[in-house]
Each structure stands twice: as structure tokens, then as C-alpha cells.
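TA notes, week 10

Several of you asked for a full example with nothing omitted. So below is the full record: C-alpha cells for the whole chain, then the designed sequence directly under it. When grading your own attempts, check the secondary structure regions first.
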């Protein structure tokens, strides 16, 4: 098992985005208009399947407080001839990360930690973590103390210096040796092992996608004394009515789980092994609950999480976060001096908040994903996606089970939602 293991539409709105009466206060007027076109989205989903890029897809949109689109194309399980349905369950992989971020920020609201506290104040093992500084004349690795401590802020924005798997460099080889995300480890053991893997760079210097969100989960356990999965269930899933979202799923839900497909060397999608279909979600032998992956969810369940964010931290009378906390999470947290950002710029014209990509400007080129200034989102290894668009009072969930990650699916879905010419509001 690999460690890094979303009814028919109600109706179509034809309201220009700039006229949304209950858009968030202070939202900038949009520079162009769009309308939800059900037929256009239907065509885009159908093309994803007919082109062979996906076996099955589904999409759900809410705008101005009501559902404006739900649609599917293809099959959840090609071999079993099982169609993609509204109650289909999927492995959302890294779309788990925003859930973990919300869990930790609830504790920040309670004054349990400060963003600029050293991580080692709560997790002492990270006080001894070294930075890889190259090799000496004999070819031996050079390790030194970081030029500053890892801050909690760093684990929220992927600037701690952690890696995220094996590699050919020394930190990558040490990752292989310690194997921190092995399913046999609980979060405490994960932390002890990760702390022994050298950092790739000094904290705060670069953006590098990493195991930092799993450290967030460990910090939740440390601060609360409650197993991370239980904490999320009690504090997020149950209050929001997310009845089918979980790391650990009952066996009777397995028949509703969408199959995973991987693109082979000939470009065709092949079903992955039965073991990976089930992941560790439908077994009892898992010790590790990752903060960065692992949740199985449905379109309606994850939409409740997305709507809570769009509604500034509350849904149906239940408050999960304060509006100011949601705003903080959806604000770019990267210093301008953080110019080395790995593949983050491929997500669009923006930066990174707390477990979200944050759009900070209009799309620069025609090939860039459509979206509005102030939008925030994240996606998952199997090509799933969700976003929150406060300017247009809209949120979207897109579900598919295809890897390697296929960004063309997101490009086509966003264009189907917004139209190809939409640029959204201008920045300052």
C-alpha cells in the first residue's frame, strides 16, 4: 500500500456574478460576467470520459446558498459496470489537508499555541532536526543546525524544510531508511522518525510540498490528548453532518467506493490492485492516521465542508471557525522573498495560505485555470478538486479517481464552470 494514498441540477442560474446580493462584504466587483451553464458542464464531463482521461467523474456546485449543478459521466467501476452516482465514495488523498488545517486552527482560536511558537515547544523531537548542507570532499553528507527553529507557521504553509518521500539525495535516502509514513506507525512514531530525516533547507526559505500536514495532525493529538481521527470526527465531521467522511470506513460501504485507475505506458487507464482499491480505509490493521491524506468522502459530504468555509466558518447554525480565522487561512502567507516554490506556480497566479492555494491575481495566460481573485482551493493525488470562490459566492467539488494527477481535467472543468474568457476581479 502506498503511503500517499464528490439528483439532477436544481436549475441553472443566469445571474451575473457582480450582482450577487449576499456575496461577502467588501468583495471587489468582477471584471467580467459568467453564468452557470449546465449543458456546458455536462459536455466537459462527458468529454473527460470519452477522451479516455477518466473512467468516471462527478461534479457538484453551490452558488448563492443553493445547489446549481450536479452531474456525472462514466462509471465508478468500469469492470463491474457500476455508474458514477451521487452516493459514490472516493479517496480524496490530499483534499484531506484542508480538513486537518481546520482541525488545528480550531485549537489556535482557543489559544493553545501561537503561530510563531517553535514547533519543538510542543514536539521536542523537532528541536534536534538538522539541515542537509551538501557533501564534503569525501562525499559524506554535511549536517548542521538550522539557522532558526521550525515554527508552527512553517508547518502550516510548507516552509519547514521537510520532504515528502524517498529520493536520490541524502534526505531522500534517509526518508527511505526511517520510513516515517509507514502505516504500521502511529502519529507519535511518525514524528519521532520524521525528526531524524534532515531538512532540505532552512525553515522559511522555500515552499516545498511536504509531510508538514501530518505534523499538524500530530500536533492536534499532542495538544488535545485525543486521537486525531476521533478529534476530527467529534469537532468537524459530526457537527457538519458529514456522515460518510472518515479515515476508517465500515466494510458495508466498500461497494460504493469508486475504483482507482492509473494511466499505463500506452496512455490507457488500468485498474489498480484490489489492495489499493480498498486502501487502508476498509481494514483494521492501520495505525497511522495521516493529516495529509486518507479520508474517503462523497460529493455531498465534502460540499458541506466547502460550504462551511464559503460561509465564513459556519453552516446551518453550527460554527466551526471564526470568520477571521477562515480569512487568515485563505490569505497568502508566503513572504515575497520565498521565490523558490517548486511546482506551486503551476496552480495559477497566486500563493499559499494555510493548507490552501490562494489566488492573488487574475489568470495571466489563456492556458491558466479560470478562477477569481480571492479564490482558495486544494486538490488530491487521484485528480480530485474543490475550490471556494467568495467573490461569486460559489463553491465546487469535482471527483474522479485517476492518477498520475491530471491537471487537464481541472482546466476543462473550471472552463466549463466559468467560461473560457472569465478573468474575475482585478487585484490592487
Amino acid at each position: 500500500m502506498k503511503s500517499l494514498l464528490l439528483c439532477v441540477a436544481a436549475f441553472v442560474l443566469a445571474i451575473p456574478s457582480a450582482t450577487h446580493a449576499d456575496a461577502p462584504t467588501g468583495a471587489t466587483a468582477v471584471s467580467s460576467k459568467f453564468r452557470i451553464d449546465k449543458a456546458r458542464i455536462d459536455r466537459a464531463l462527458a468529454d473527460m470520459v470519452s477522451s479516455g482521461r477518466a473512467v468516471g467523474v462527478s461534479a457538484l456546485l453551490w452558488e448563492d446558498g443553493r445547489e446549481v449543478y450536479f452531474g456525472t459521466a462514466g462509471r465508478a467501476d468500469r469492470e463491474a459496470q457500476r455508474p458514477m452516482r451521487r452516493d459514490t465514495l472516493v479517496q480524496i488523498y490530499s483534499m484531506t489537508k484542508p480538513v486537518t488545517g481546520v482541525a488545528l486552527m480550531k485549537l489556535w482560536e482557543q489559544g493553545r499555541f501561537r503561530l510563531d511558537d517553535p514547533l519543538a515547544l510542543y514536539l521536542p523531537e523537532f528541536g534536534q532536526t538538522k539541515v542537509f548542507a551538501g557533501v564534503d570532499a569525501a562525499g559524506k553528507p554535511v549536517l548542521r543546525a538550522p539557522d532558526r527553529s521550525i515554527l508552527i507557521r512553517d508547518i502550516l504553509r510548507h516552509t519547514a524544510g521537510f520532504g515528502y518521500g524517498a529520493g536520490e539525495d541524502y534526505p531522500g535516502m534517509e526518508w527511505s531508511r526511517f520510513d516515517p509514513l509507514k502505516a504500521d506507525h502511529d502519529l507519535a512514531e511518525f514524528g519521532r522518525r520524521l525528526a531524524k530525516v534532515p531538512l532540505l533547507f532552512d525553515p522559511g526559505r522555500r515552499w516545498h510540498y511536504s509531510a508538514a500536514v501530518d505534523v499538524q495532525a500530530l500536533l492536534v493529538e499532542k495538544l488535545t490528548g485525543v486521537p486525531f481521527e476521533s478529534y476530527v470526527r467529534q469537532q468537524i465531521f459530526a457537527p457538519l453532518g458529514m456522515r460518510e467522511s472518515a479515515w476508517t470506513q465500515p466494510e458495508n460501504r466498500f461497494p460504493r467506493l469508486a475504483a482507482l485507475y492509473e494511466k499505463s505506458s500506452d496512455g490507457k487507464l488500468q485498474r489498480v490492485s484490489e489492495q489499493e482499491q480498498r486502501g487502508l480505509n476498509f481494514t483494521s490493521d492501520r495505525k497511522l492516521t495521516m493529516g495529509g491524506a486518507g479520508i474517503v468522502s462523497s460529493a455531498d459530504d465534502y460540499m458541506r465542508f466547502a460550504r462551511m468555509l464559503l460561509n465564513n466558518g459556519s453552516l446551518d447554525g453550527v460554527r466551526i471557525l471564526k470568520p477571521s480565522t477562515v480569512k487568515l487561512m485563505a490569505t497568502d502567507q508566503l513572504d515575497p522573498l520565498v521565490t523558490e516554490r517548486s511546482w506551486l506556480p503551476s496552480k495559477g497566479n497566486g500563493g499559499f495560505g494555510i493548507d490552501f492555494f490562494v489566488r492573488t491575481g487574475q489568470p495571466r495566460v489563456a492556458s491558466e485555470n479560470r478562477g477569481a481573485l480571492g479564490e482558495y482551493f486544494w486538490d488530491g493525488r487521484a485528480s480530485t478538486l474543490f475550490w471556494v470562490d467568495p467573490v461569486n459566492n460559489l463553491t465546487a467539488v469535482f471527483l474522479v479517481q485517476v492518477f498520475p494527477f491530471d491537471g487537464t481535467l481541472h482546466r476543462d472543468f473550471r472552463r466549463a464552470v466559468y467560461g473560457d474568457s472569465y478573468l474575475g476581479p482585478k487585484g490592487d
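Confidence is low (pLDDT under 50) at residues 1-31. Use that as a sanity check on your answer.
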